[in-house]
Design brief:
Elements: E1 4-8, H1 12-24, E2 28-32, H2 41-44, E3 66-70, H3 74-87, E4 94-97, H4 107-124
Parallel strand pairs: 1-2, 3-4
Antiparallel strand pairs: 1-3
Length: about 120
């Protein structure tokens, strides 16, 4: 499976920087636009067995960036995150690896889950 980064709420300058890094590592970068936020993540990652939803997201943009890493093994993840840090790119707080479960979710559901997890971790520290 091709490794992919699905990016949400990322501006053009940051997108260029991330693409530069990903290209060196043979990772496809897909910027997901707001109208697609009701689609299943598996569909957005162009995986088979996922069909397009008829709903169009009309809500507000996410208040911060989000990234889903698709097709990454644990070694790939370590390698990618080390390279990310090495480039000096600021981190994306809301990020996840694709799983059988979250590929069934919409970006809206993933954002809510990651945002809540991040909020809980911050309040525990």
């Amino acid at each position: 499976m091709t490794r992919k980064l699905l990016l949400f709420c990322v501006d053009q300058d940051r997108l260029r920087e991330i693409r530069r890094l990903a290209q060196r590592m043979d990772i496809e970068v897909v910027r997901i636009e707001r109208p697609s936020y009701w689609q299943k993540l598996g569909y957005l990652a162009k995986m088979t067995n996922f069909t397009e939803e008829s709903r169009v997201y009309m809500g507000a943009e996410f208040p911060e960036e989000m990234m889903l890493m698709v097709g990454f093994g644990s070694r790939d993840l370590d390698w990618f995150l080390a390279a990310w840090k090495e480039t000096g790119l600021s981190p994306v707080r809301l990020k996840a690896m694709a799983t059988q479960t979250n590929l069934q979710w919409s970006p809206v559901a993933l954002f809510q889950e990651l945002f809540e997890e991040d909020r809980q971790m911050r309040s525990d520290s």
